Protein 1
Amino acid sequence: MNAKPASISENLIEFRDVAYHINDIPTRMIVSDISLRIPSGETLVLLGRSGSGKTTLLKLINGLLLPPKGAVLVQNRPTTEWDPIRLRRGIGYVIQEAGLFPHFTVAENVALVPTLENWDAPRTAARVQEMLHLVGLDPHEYAHRRPRELSGGQRQRVGVARALAADPPILLMDEPFGALDPVTRAELQREFSTLVRRLGKTIVFVTHDLREALLLASRIVLLQAGCIVASATPKEFLRLDHPEVRAFTSSLSVSPGAPA
Amino acid sequence: MSPWTFILDHRGEILSATLDHVTLVVIAMAIAILIGVPIGMLIVQRPALRTIALGIASIFQTIPSLALFGFLIPIPFIGGIGKRTAIVALVLYALLPILRNTYVGLTGIDPAVLESAEAMGMTRSQILFRVRLPLALAVILAGIRTATIITIGVATIAAAIGAGGLGTFIFRGVALVSDALILAGAIPAALLALLADFLLGLLERRIRIS
């Protein structure tokens, strides 16, 4: 994997005063007043409670949603001007349930975007092998299995491999480890944080788990009721004096069963 | 004369009636699939059409088969006595299970799968042909299986309006009070339905597993 040194100055993704509301109901804002620059190579974690608008921001980046107000720019071009298919093929996407195709083998799932992009067979096959190794799955053992023959953790690994297969510069992840048991989750978080540093991708990662945010983020953006209320590096974040930040940091210290 | 000797003696006629029966069913099913599957695909996108299409199909399904034949006979072009009217009626009967299962199969797919397909940059037609249809296939096939069984049954009654097939023996047997004649139609008709059910069920399981 050739990790290119990222030029930090370039804004790969930019939100310009974006608001999003449900179809025809401008009063029902899901997110509003969002301005955000995500430079190339950053691992930005969108942190917030359920319903705070994290997933909406993610879907605005790959054009699954389009902003009725403001603009979302990817590589300096508004998502409304991109061909949605081209835009999405350059953006990896991993969600909580993995969303693997049940009728495809692991190898076919990973090969999805290369196949859509008409890579030749040897190149695709080599890439699938490489990706499975990257996420810690032995191709000989797993390439021909179906998703239902995998554990939850293995499915998420395949999900990550699929998202990275066509080497997109951007990776969007929506609580990818949220449905896993705590042990598997910690394992994947650790491995993924090493992977992130090796890949040099621009990553936008949605979670409600502060611990996960601190482990992975180069910057944490905290959302509350559809607005950005804090944006800081993990170190600074813990020292911020905002009620919602404190609500999250206090959740860290309350671990039931631990000695006071 | 025992029914068995009768059946053996007339095996040529029974075989040709069975072939007539199968032909009737195959033609009707082919038309019903060609109409039902595309309409099923269409109503996934159009909720307004959904109620209308499923409503009309279930009305046809509810009308007793002899009554439906009766309604069709006076209609010009499609009506009259014979195979054509029978095929139209069989198609109308087969439509509902095919339509309904196509719709259910296409809409019953895990939303996470569809979301990833879209987010990975698949076009609408790629999502339809590479994700939705393959995943709905087992359910659609179950509908085709149900429709085939119904069609084999209704085709037996279609002999009453001169469509030929195995029903001819049964009706003639009832008129002549001949058990042998009745059985010469009833046994192959029953076997045909059981065989179709078995084979299509086999195919369905195969698709579901792979």
Protein 2
Amino acid sequence: MSSSALQATTLRILLIDDDPDHVLLIRRALRDLGNERDVESLSDGEEALAWLDVAPEPPDLILLDINMPGLSGFEVLSRLRADERHKRVPVVMLTSSDAQADIARAYELGASGYIAKPSHYQDLRAVLGNTVLYWSAMRRFAGPEQETGECA
Amino acid sequence: MSGLHVAIIAESGRQYRQLAGAIRGVGVEAIHDVAVEEAVRWLDLRPCDVCVLSHELPGKRTGLDLLLDIRKHCPDLPVIMVSRAGSDRVAVAAFHADVIDYVPISRGYEVAVASLIGQLKVTSRIDQILPAQIIPAGIDQALMRLTYQNRLRAVGRHLDLYGFRRIYILEVEGGFVVRATAADGRETETLEFADQHFPQLLASCAAARGEGERHWPVPGSLLPTGYEDFLRAVGYELDQRAAEAITISELDDLAVVSGVGRVDEYGVTRFGPLQWLLRRPDVERLLDEAYRRRAPVPAGSVARAGRGPAVLRRLTG
């Protein structure tokens, strides 16, 4: 499907995963999708939260492994969702395909979606395409949520 | 079994075998090894559904040169170009020549090519079950609008027809990408529902089923009446919220709907991220509201403004 004004290639992506093989796989897929230059990859949750704290602006998309040593993906996700600066950033969890309970828990914590490992090129492409639409809509409504003046 | 015919114009016999093996893996059997020097004539004489063309070819000509010749005879033939060229120049030139995709050759590239052909196979199957002539006249135009309600209904009907399950729908520009487990439960497939397919799909929905008709319930399932009804009902709520960029994910006992749209917060409606978590009772109430809404309205009654059922729980926004 075609490109848009906000291109997938302009997305800034933070990849948090301790598995170097998987990081390589995802980076390669992202490179094929044109995102190589805009991917930051970090291998644990503490490091990622510290990076986010000092980043000049939040990334457009966070790909977050659930199972990591130290802070788990769930803990990282909870902290992100409690943080005003990062609560609107789509967080897509990286998980094994049969981990239904993990996926459900991630959604309950505010995850935006998931990609089953080993990641498929097409899954990533679809996630990037959806993220482009998401930010396109969000930016059209001028950053912070815009009131419509309508009472519920 | 797919009826697709795939022509491969490869750099070498090894490359042909590599691509053909992967393409067979998505259920395509009619795969043809086409020699470079015969390619234009071969494609001109034989009907072929998709061509995989290497940019690197034996001899002096490149795949781009050959592609320009092919276009003179077969302007509409879907072509997937593969290349070892590391430059964007080849990719850009290929897209100018109207390839449907460009796949850089790296480890596993043949799987990406096969996957693209797998999507074409599904599209072809949609076209086979929905030939243009079945669009009947006199369909209510409201059912043909490209709302979420209508489009998701059409997606759901397709999923019901082919017995897919455990779905994950992502909206992208120009349509929806759907990941779903196939009926035999062994493979996850990626389906694309492009906007240009919807007129036929919607007509088929409208022609196939009466408005008041319910599907048989499926005991124990999260979605008691299948995907068509569920996605139609969810689509209605998304339309009410002027939603965009949606995703719908089905797990064993939970469906999650996300996107951007109008959300109610402290008595004020705002635009922002929305997310609904739906369990079986929520789905049942959603479906009941949808059936009531579509039931014939008694004369003199006033249509209720749709705000969505209370069961739609917003988590973020």
